[in-house]
Amino acid sequence: MSLFDLLPAQPLLQQIERLAPGQCYLVGGAPRDLLLGCPALDLDIVIEGDAPAVGRALQRAQGGKLTQHAAFLTATWQAPGGPALDLITARRETYPRPAALPQVTPSTLADDLARRDFSLNTLAIRLADGALLDQHHAQADLQNGLIRVLHDASFFDDPTRLYRAARYATRYGFSIAPSTLALFPAALPLVARLSPERLRHELDLILDEPRALETLMRLDQLGLLEIIAEVLPRGADLRENLAPALGGLSAPWSGTSPLKAYPPQRALTYTLWFSPLPASDLQKLQARLILPAWLYQTVSAAAALRRELPTLRGSRPSAWVARLESVPLLAVYAIFLATRQPELEIYAQKWRDIHPHLSAARLQALGVAPGPRFGEVLRRLRAARLDGEISSAAEEMTLLQKLCGTP
Question: Tens digit of pLDDT for each residue in 264-285?
Answer without folding.
Answer: 889 999 999 999 999 999 999 9
